[in-house]
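Model it.
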Amino acid sequence: MTELTLPIIGYMHSPYKEKFGIPRQPNLVQVESYVEMTGPYNDLLAFEGIEAFSHLWLVWQFHDNKNQQSQQFRPQVRPPRLGGNQKIGVFATRSMYRPAPIGLSVVKLNRVEKVGKNVRVYVTGSDLLDGTPIIDIKPYIQYSDAVPEAQSGYAQDEPSRKSVMWSKDAEQQKKLLLEKGTISAQLLEELEAVLSLDPRPAYQDDENRVYGMKFADLDVKFKVTLADIVVDQLIF
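Modeled.
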């Protein structure tokens, strides 16, 4: 047997509407999202006892890789943390371009709720695109899953962050959206946390270029300087 078929037990609902801008690892941004379970897995009995665990493992599929299936196996990729120029073995990375497009993320469990006929698992800190298929949910076991002395190669330390500034126009747009109740202060805090990680591809370095990113219901335009992210436009 050379292939497996796995069930999809649910789908992620998150403010990350496109791959651009998603944190490159979980728990870099404390954004709440939820997994909506599909039948027959949308049964609260399946989650009995889960409240005793603070964190969960989400096992999921990289589902939005264009031409993933048609591509031949690539033994080396270019990780963003190495500037996008240096090649390294695919199994020494968490690249989405791998033989089995499977991801693994540890997240904080907030709660499990029955909403109508649906069961939702609310979590914080995920790095999953909206609509990501979930293959499994497992409890995080602190004594065995956490390895304080572990070495993480080129990704030993958390990535640096930039300050997030607002242009005059964007500041006005933000103020109007807040006054109307269209967005919340929490959503803006989450957006700033995402932007502070500098979502650009590692090989792009153009201070005059305007980048666009979708976050929740917002269309965000921004520029990047050596030290800052400058929000130019905020459109709802």
